[in-house]
Amino acid sequence: MIIHSNVLNCNLYEELLDIFEKNPFLYFSNQYHWNEDLLQGMLGTCLCADVNEYIKSLILKDIGHLLPSYKDIDMLYYTWGKQSGINWHTDFPYLFGATIYFNKDWNRRDGGILLWEDEFEIKGHLPKPNSMVLNTKNYNHMVTPIHYDAVSPRYTIQIFGKS
């Protein structure tokens, strides 16, 4: 996993955070769209919505130089509710996966920590605002459940590169 800081320009970051907080999306639920293995032990709901082409282009303008080559890209807003998470998985068949984090104040007690397995150990990343984790090696990874008394949802944009 490669971790980058301050990946979006400040104005775009603030605009996207505002979009998350105002919640203008037509969401779909992970409960009906994710494989059962991904949901095992996760009681909550992650709401997902496609990022429109205009916003996608703005994001790619800021982060494109950090991404490997790809032919097409999927980008989704994820709003992780209480007790939601995702169990161990890889991002196969995608070329890479990336996560941009939006919460300004995320406490480790709130859960939502990215864990991944490299060759020798399990590592973790606590969400930091405007950071991006890039998975180019198809690491097995998960997100720990959001604690039932977390003060806010966990906001991310998920990016998946396709060949």
Averaging pLDDT over every residue, what do you get?
91
Number of domains: 1
Task: Give the CATH topology.
Answer: Jelly Rolls
Lateral strand order in the biggest sheet: 1-9-6-11-4-3-2
Structure, described:
The protein is of the alpha+beta class and 163 residues long. The chain has a single domain (2-162), classed as q2cbj1_9rhob like domain (Jelly Rolls). It has helices spanning 10-22, 30-33, 36-39, 53-63; strands at 2-4, 28-29, 46-50, 72-80, 86-89, 96-101, 114-117, 122-125, 132-135, 141-143, 154-162. The strands form 2 sheets. It has a 7-stranded antiparallel beta sheet. The protein has a 4-stranded antiparallel beta sheet with strand order 5-10-7-8. A hairpin with a 4-residue loop joins β7 and β8.
What can be said about this structure in brief?
The chain has four helices and eleven strands, in the order E-H-E-H-H-E-H-E-E-E-E-E-E-E-E. The protein is an alpha+beta fold.
Write the layout of secondary structure elements.
Elements: E1 2-4, H1 10-22, E2 28-29, H2 30-33, H3 36-39, E3 46-50, H4 53-63, E4 72-80, E5 86-89, E6 96-101, E7 114-117, E8 122-125, E9 132-135, E10 141-143, E11 154-162
Antiparallel strand pairs: 1-9, 2-3, 3-4, 4-11, 5-10, 6-9, 6-11, 7-8, 7-10
Any descriptors?
single chain, 163 residues, alpha+beta, Jelly Rolls, 7-stranded antiparallel sheet, 11 strands, 33% strand
